[in-house]
Write the structure tokens for this entry.
Amino acid sequence: MRLAVLFGAVLALAGCSASWGWYVVDPSTAKGAQNLGFLLSGLGMTIRLSATAILISVTVGLLVALPGLSAHRGLRAASRAYVETVRAVPILVLILWVYYGLPQLSGLTISVFWAGVIALALSDSAFQAEIFRAGIQSIARGQYEAAYSVSLGYRDTMRYVILPQAIRRILPALGNQLVYMLKMSSLVSVIGMQELTRKANELVVSEYRPLEIYTVLVLEYLVLILIVSAGVRWLERRLAVDERQ
């Protein structure tokens, strides 16, 4: 409601200037409603792209983090090398390399969507690995000893004892990474992904009103990220209640 009032105030104030053309996104006109619909049509792709990438990056991040906690020096070194290498590559460069370079190396045709997913997930997995490593290391040693005392193996100890506790502790960091993923998904527009930013760029080219159109784009991301942040906070409270019970 507050965002709607704010947007309405912006439109009202902007209407005082002849040099601003908020009519281009005015929902009360047929053309404005059509333009708004065009901008919003990229929302589904942004959500699909971000959700798929975050699921893959969490899985890969956990698989990378576990060897990093091993007593074996070679496994720790391999985990560290992966994290440091991936984190050193700018995500935009990684997107371009995956889309243009990976098909030449693999001989496979990669769609724009999956190129974006692979690049985002690969980049984020290094950060997820560090989050999981820190979360698992924060669990007291006594939890391991208690699990081993009831004959639980390493896999069951991680699955039933350590990871549930670690996830509660790292949930805020995971939520931050989801927000980060939503924002970084805008970079996939450079390879033609029809998400929110790409739609806005295309509309700017046809309407020549960058201020008005990009303002709507900012509000779209703002609303989306506020909703995700509220969902993460709700989940944190829910897990905290379950833990107290």
Notes: The CA atoms of residues 45 and 195 lie 5 Å apart. The chain has one domain: 45-244. The domain at 45-244 is CATH 1.10.3720.10 (MetI-like fold).
